[in-house]
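As a warm-up, study this chain.
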Amino acid sequence: MTESQQKPSETGIRVIIVGAGFAGLTAAIECHRKGHGVLLLEKFPELKLLGDIISFGPNSSRLFCRWPGVAEKLEPLSMRADSITLKSWQGETLYTQYWEQELKDFGIRFDGHRGEFHEVLYNHAREIGVEIRLGARVEDYFEEADRAGVVVEGGERLTADVVIAAEGVRSKGRKIVLGFEDKPKASGYAVYRSWFSADEIAKDPDTKFFTENGDKHVAWLGPDVHFIAACMKKGEDFSWVCTHKGNHPQPQDDQDIEESWQLEAPLEDARKVLEGWDPIVQKILDKTPSPLIDWKLVYRDPLPTWISAGRRIALIGDSAHPFLPTSIQGASQAMEDGVTIAVCLRECANDKKKNVQEAVAAFEAIRYARVKSAQKTGEQTRDIWHKADFKAAKDNPESLRLRREGWLLGFDAEKYAEENYARTVEVLRRTGLQDTAEARKLHEPEAKFGYLEYSNGVSAPAAANGTA
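Now compare it with the structure written out below.
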C-alpha cells in the first residue's frame, strides 16, 4: 500500500476534498484562493452534463461574482424570468410573484441546467490550478493525532491536515464522523424531472407563451403535488419538475433508496399523477420525451455533529445536511459550507497556534444553526403548497408566495466567517473543542425555525388557513 501527502501551499495547510459536486468544487476553489494546498478527488472517471434545473440564491451567487469570469459564463445559461406565476392544479391563476425587489435588496441569482453550471465551475477550478483526480473512488476515511486521510480504490492512502467529505448523502465520511453507519430514509416524496428542447412548446398556440417575451416560470399547485415548468435561454430549453407523494413500494432496506440521475420512469407514470390537471399541463406532457428522471427524495435524521472526534474531518453539503428541493437552498448552503471552512482554515493559519482542529470546530459552530433553520424552509414551503386551502388562498393569494427573507438571501458567508471566527474560537478555547454547543449559539439566526413567520416554532402551513 502506497502513501502520499498532499503538498502544502502558502498557508502550509494541506486539504483533501472528496467529491466534485457544487459543495466540493466551492471548497476546492475557495481553499485554493485562500492559500491552502488542495487535492480534489472524484469517483467518476469523467464528468457528464447530468441533471436539470438548479437554483443558486443571491447568498451563494455572490461567490460566483467573486470568481473571475464565472458569473459572465453562467449568465447566458441562466433563466431570467421576471416572476413566477402560481396556479391551482385546475389552471386558475392565483398569484404572480415578481423578482425585481429581491434583485434590488439581495443581488443577482443564477438558475439553470445543473450540468451546464457544473461544467463552468469545474473548468474554473482547473484553470486556477486546483489539482483534481477523476476516477478516484474513496473507500475509507481515517484520522490520526496529527493528520487525516482517505484510502482510495486500489489501496493508496492519501493524507492531509484536513479532509472534507463532500460526496453527497451516502458519503463514507459520515461513518467516521458519527461512529456508525446510518441509513437514508424515504421522505415519502419523489420528483419526476425532465429537460428538453422548447421547439415543440413554441409551435403550440396554447404553450408558445412560454417562449415569447422572455423566460417564463409557472407553478401549478395541487393536493400533495406541485408541477413547475420553466422556459429559459430565450426560448431554447424547457424544463419541468413534478413533486408528488411516492407511489412506489417502500423497500425493506432503506439503503435501497437512492437519489440518482440514472433512475428512470415512463412518462405514463407522471400522467397518472397529473390526471385531470390543467389542459396546459397535459399539453406539456404531450411534448415531453420519455423516459423521465425518477428522483426519490431521501432524508437523513439531523446529525448531532458534522465533524469527526479528532476534528480533522468535516462533512459539507448533502453529506452533512440534505435539503428538500422546496427550500431552493440546497446548493446555496453547500456553497456557503465550502467558503466558510476555507475562511476558517485561513484564519487559523494566521494565528500563531495554527490549530486546524480549532478551525474545523469553528466551521461547524458557525454553520450549524443557520443550516438547521434553512432546512426547515423546505418543509414549510412544501406544506404551504401541498396543503393549501385554495378557497382561502383566493381571499389571500399572497399566502402562497415563496418566502424570500433577508436572513437567508442577504447573507454573505465569506464575510460572516471572517468577522466571526475570532469570537467563535474564543468560546471554543474555553469550552474545549469537544463541546461546540455554546459556540453554536453565537450564530443562531434571527429565524430559528425556518421562515420568520414560524419564529415561535408553529409549523402549520400559512396557506391552509388563509393567513400570510
